Structure formats: C-alpha cells, structure tokens
Amino acid sequence: MSTRQPDAAKGGKFRAPLLFAVMAALIVMEGLTTGWDSALVILNMGIISAIMALGLNMQWGYAGLFNSGVVGFTALGGLAPVLISMPPTGGAMSQGGWQILGALLIAVLALVVATKLNHRLHGAARAAGVIAALVIGFVLFRAVFDPAVARVQAINPASQGYLGGLGLPVLLAWPVGAVLAAAAAWAIGKTSLGLRSDYLAIATLGIGEIIVAVLKNEEWLDRGVLNVTGIPRPWPVPYEVDLQADPGFVARMQGWGIDPVTGSTLTVKLIYMGLFGLVLALLLWGAQLALKSPWGRMMRAIRDNETAAAAMGKNVTRRHLQIFMLGAAVMGLAGAMMITLDGQMTPASYNPLRYTFLILVMVVVGGSGNNWGSVLGAVLVWFLWIKAEAWGPEIMNLAISHMSEGPLRQHLFDAAPQMRVIVMGLLLLLVLRFSPRGLLPEK
Q: Is the pLDDT of residue 213 over 60?
C-alpha cells in the first residue's frame, strides 16, 4: 500500500475535476472552431468508448485479466440490433431458417457426444470415439447447413439474403448484446481461466478474430460484408426528416436563428448524447459501488496476490470468470449502442487497432483500476485519435515545406493521416513517463 498512496494523492483532490474541465474545454473549443456537429460526433463516440473502457477496466483494473480480444466482444454486441430490431426476412425460415437452426443443433450435439466419449472411454478407444463423433457430426452439419444457407441467401440478395431479426424495439437489443458477449466470455473463461495469464491473452486474441471472421463471412446471419443498413433508432431519438417536417420545430429553429436542417442534426445528436450519457452514468454509479464494496476489495486482493486470496478460502478461478463475464457484458452493451448510433452493421469495420489497442490505451492513460480515469482516458484518447488525423497533413506540410518536390516528399505527405498512430504512441510514452499509473491513479 505504501507504493500506491503517494501517487494517488500526488495531484490533490482537485486533480480529477481539473482534468475533466480541460476535457470539456477541448470539446467546447472543437464546437466553436470546427462546428458543434463535429463536437457532438466526437463526444457521442467518446461516451461509447468510455463504456468499452469501463468494461476492460473491470477485467484488467479490478482483476488483472488481460483481454486482447475486445474487438470480438464489441462485435458480438453489435450483432444484437440486427437479430432483435431488424424485421424478419419473408420466407427465410420456411426456405432454410429452420434447417440452419437444426444444423447448429447437430454441431452442438456432436461436441457434447465427443466430450462425453472423451470422459468415459480410455486409450485408443477414446481417440477413435472422439474423432468419429466429430467427423460424423461435421458431415451431417454440412449436409444440412450448406443447402439451407444457399436458399436463404437467394432471397432478395440485393437488400436481404439473411434471416433478419425479430422486429422488436432496438433498446431491447442493448441488454441482448451484453448477454451475447457475456456468453462468449463464459466459454473462453471456462477453458482459459485458472491457467497462466498468457493463455487468456492468446485465447481472447484468437476468439476475437474468429468472431469478426464469422460475422464477415456468414451472410445468412448478418449479410457479411454486404452490411445491414436501416437499423431502427431507439426511443426517443427522432429522424431528421421528421423534425424538418414538423412546423413547430421549424418555427422554433427559425426563431433561434438556426437553419432547420442544421437544427435537426444537432437535436438528434444531443438526444443521443443524453441517452448514452444516462447509460454511462448508471454504469459508472454501479461500478463505483461495486469497487468500494467487499466484493470489489476482494477482487483487488485477488489481483494483488492470488496465492494469499486462495489461502483465505477464495475461489480465484470462479471470481475471475465472474469479473471476466461482467466486463465482456459491458463491452457488448457498448457494441450494441455503437451499431444503433451508426444505423448499420458493417463487420469489415471491426479493426483490432481501434477496438482493442485503442481501448487498452484509454484505460492505461486514464488510470487502470480507476473508473473515472477510464472515462477520462476514453474521451481524451478518442478526441486526440480523431483530431490527429486532421492535424496530420497540416503538421506534415509544415515539416516538409523546405523539401524539394520528389518521391520522398510525396510519400511523407501521403503518410500524414497515419500520424494518429504516432500521436497515440507519444501520448502513451508521456503518460507512462510522468504519471505511470495514469492521469487518475487508483486510490
């Protein structure tokens, strides 16, 4: 404890309010210089990133579990609005939907049978039985699955070609996204937790990439790289065209001296900001209560010394699985919120650089183990990530202004947008050098 207290008190009690005030000033400056539309776009995605960072902080900050597959849990959460809120594709279930579900059931049964045989048989009989169960299951699965998928994808492939969803309100998809991510975390945790920490890092990295690959290629599920568009908006967010068609709204905007088109865009983004901010506030409130509770103190004790915690009678593996699922659920919730904001599901956009590395940087910069630090780090890092792409060409123009025309000058100018990666590296180095436990260290 003696190594933590001086750091925690270093900035004084006004450190957090001052840093959040600086962050707010940056957002206001963006609104005054570039435009409020740009500022709200950055802020909304910053809030969603803060929720992702909170989920990772629960795993890494509370329990010391290194998750290198944040992108996979986020993508699973993003699948939920497609499954829940999109209308069902007419005729898809009768053409092949039920057969697809049956094929998936065959795959599950084959795994269950292989597992049972692995436990009950011995020697060569066990190997032969497991291999036979898996091979037979695979053959049956493909025999049922492939023709069913072909029939489903043949239904109006230009705009559908997939099973569709349930047509329910999109707000219901948010907790479903959390459940999907938590279920994946359970499957990973049951096989990886309890082993060395590097096994979990490798497992989450691999599973994350597998999830993204499945979403890119299984068109019957989410249209793959063809994308699902037109995902409904949550209540109470209106559509801009509806606001522009409302005489009362138009009159109000004109009375304020605002163009109705601009006013409708800003209104929608402000409502999204309020909705996302409410979710973040509830999660932050719950996370703070949990962190200060006996459960939170137990998790940090396990993180600091697993051997001592186990000697005190704590089931370390079970608690690790619990916090791992909880953090993944928060990431899945953020993934569902992001797809709702975008209005479309684009599996090809799930990039580990954005949805794993950047989220980790947010937690490290903000302060691992501090929920408020994760929120601050998320909004700050996202702001710099967006602005660095715009600042890159200007900085590069200044740097190469003395150079003569040629391939080197052109190459440097073309690489200017990638300066955002350099900026993230410099930010991380500066924070680790001058505040190694983050801008808001754990208390």
A: yes
Tokens for 180?
């999907």
Q: Write down the pLDDT at residue 400.
A: 72
Report the alpha-carbon distance of residue 221 to residue 257 in Å, rounded.
Answer: 47
Pairwise CA distance, residues 390 & 394, whole Å: 8
> HSE on the CB side for 358, CA within 13 Å?
26
Give residue-wise pLDDT tens across range 261-289: 888 999 999 999 999 999 999 999 999 99
Cα distances from 385 to residues 173, 281, 289, 354, 426, in angstroms, run 28, 24, 31, 10, 12
pLDDT at position 7: 47
Residues in the chain: 443
pLDDT at position 443 over 80 = no
Q: How far apart are the first and last CA of the chain?
A: 10
Judge contact between 375 and 53, C-beta under 8 A: yes
* Neighbouring residues of 65: CB distance < 8 A, sequence distance ≥ 6: 59, 193, 197, 200, 320, 323, 324, 327
Q: Please report the pLDDT score of residue 35 as a whole number.
A: 86
Q: Which of 103, 44, 67, 108 is nearest to 325 (CA)?
A: 67
pLDDT tens track for 111-139: 899 988 888 888 888 889 889 999 999 99
Backbone angles phi, psi at 121, to 5 degrees: -95, 170
Query: Residue 359's closest CA among 39, 76, 45, 64?
Result: 45
> For the residues 429-435, what does the mean pLDDT come to?
87
Mean pLDDT lowest for which of 34-38, 198-202, 205-209? Answer: 198-202
- Which value, to the nearest 10 degrees, does the dihedral of the CA atoms of residues 211, 213, 218, 222 take? 70
Given a cut of 80, whether residue 397 has pLDDT beyond it is no
